[in-house]
Write a structure and sequence with these properties.
Elements lengths: L28 E7 L6 E2 L2 H9 L10 E7 L3 H10 L4 H8 L6 E5 L2 E9 L10 E8 L3 E6 L4 H11 L7 H35 L6 H19 L1 H11 L7 H67 L14 H24 L1
Parallel strand pairs: 3-7
Antiparallel strand pairs: 1-2, 1-3, 4-5, 5-6, 6-7
Helix pairs in contact: 4-5, 5-6, 5-8, 6-8, 7-8, 8-9
Family: Belongs to the CorA metal ion transporter (MIT) (TC 1.A.35) family.
Protein name: Magnesium transporter CorA
Keywords: Cell inner membrane, Cell membrane, Coiled coil, Ion transport, Membrane, Transmembrane, Transmembrane helix, Transport, Zinc
């Protein structure tokens, strides 16, 4: 990979790296690693990172690069990156854009990427989907996030476990593959939930499942909406890649594109299945409502003769029939029963 010079860095005083909140130092650094050709990543501090970036080209190995991962919840993180790291303006513009759609763009010999990921403890809540911003250069990879994310945490663990990366784009590809694995796991978990809902639906337990399906569908729609632009952005990058990308890195990006396309198809299929289940639940609720209304109508019809006759006989006027007959009550009861049977027969015949 060709070595391209970075803009000169201003001389800085020694920075004391102290532990801060959420596992980052006072400048928001969560972790930093130095990678050399054929070697595992070595953890380093901000002081060491600035020293590596300021070193002359002849003092560096041709395949050396750094990865710095920042926590944007620290108010000083963005200002420190702007003051000390040679990052393109497009990276900082992406931090403040309203659109969080996943994309990878070429900007001034950098790859600026916005990658949507799920929170470390994901429980199918729409608010647990957040963005990770990256700037990739032949000598430097900078990533930033506002909350812990699962894919980048898996990447950090892989580096700590000794995984070797020959280039910054290889690191990006590993992150994309981790993200694909996380999404595949989410689709599998969602499929299990849909299977459980479908089983309950077969047993007639559908009222409680409507809210669960609606929540799950909202999460999947949000995931698809944020991830859908990613294959298109990768295809645009593959058509006009930066000159410092080699063939192996391009092949890995193509594989990541194919994996995301498969995941997106699975998401779309699962959403369609949830939609069909929701329609089935709606149909069953409507059918049960119709049965309840029919039962109420039948009861009202059956009670109509006795209410009418009781109202007539309850009038406080003269001439009420059978008032002096010893069999008056039995006669009226038989009349009411006859009208009730006829009304019931008419109602059930209409239903059939």
């Amino acid at each position: 990979m060709p070595d391209r010079p970075l803009p000169p860095l201003q001389p800085q005083a020694t920075l004391a790296v102290t532990a801060g909140a959420y596992g980052s130092d006072r400048h928001g650094l969560v972790s930093g690693f130095h990678f050399s050709a054929g070697q595992a990543g070595r953890a380093l501090s901000l002081d060491e990172a600035l020293g590596c970036l300021a070193a002359p080209a002849e003092a560096r190995a041709p395949d050396d690069f750094l990865w710095l991962h920042f926590n944007l919840s620290d108010a000083s993180a963005e200002a420190w990156m702007q003051a000390h790291l040679p990052l393109p303006a497009e990276f900082f513009d992406a931090l403040h854009e309203g659109s969080r759609s996943t994309r990878i763009e070429d900007a001034a010999d950098h790859l600026v990427a916005v990658v949507n990921d799920v929170a470390f403890e994901f429980s199918f809540e729409p608010s647990e989907i957040a963005s990770l911003w990256l700037a990739v250069h032949p000598r430097l990879v900078v990533s930033a996030r506002t909350q812990p994310l699962r894919s980048v945490d898996r990447l950090r663990q892989a580096v700590k476990d000794g995984t070797r990366f020959g280039s910054p784009v290889a690191l990006l590809n590993h992150l994309l593959h981790d993200q694909g694995d996380v999404l595949v796991r989410i689709v599998r978990d969602a499929t299990l939930q849909v299977d459980a809902v479908e089983d309950n639906l077969q047993r007639g337990q559908f009222r409680v499942q409507r809210a669960a399906l609606g929540k799950l569908r909202r999460v999947l729609v949000r995931l698809q909406r944020l991830l859908a632009p990613e294959p298109g952005a990768l295809f645009r990058l593959l058509r006009q890649p930066p000159p410092w990308l080699d063939a192996d890195d391009l092949d890995a990006l193509r594989q990541a594109t194919e994996e995301f396309s498969l995941v997106l198809r699975d998401l779309a299929a699962l959403q369609e299945r949830i939609k069909l289940l929701q329609e089935e639940i709606t149909a069953q609720v409507a059918e049960q409502t119709n049965r309840s209304l029919f039962t109420l109508t039948v009861v009202t019809v059956l009670a109509l003769p006795i209410n009418i006759i009781a109202g007539l006989l309850g009038m406080n006027v003269g001439g009420i029939p059978l008032a002096d007959s010893p069999h008056g009550f039995l006669t009226i009861a038989l009349i009411v029963l006859s009208f009730t049977v006829v009304a019931g027969w008419l109602a059930f015949r209409r239903r059939s």
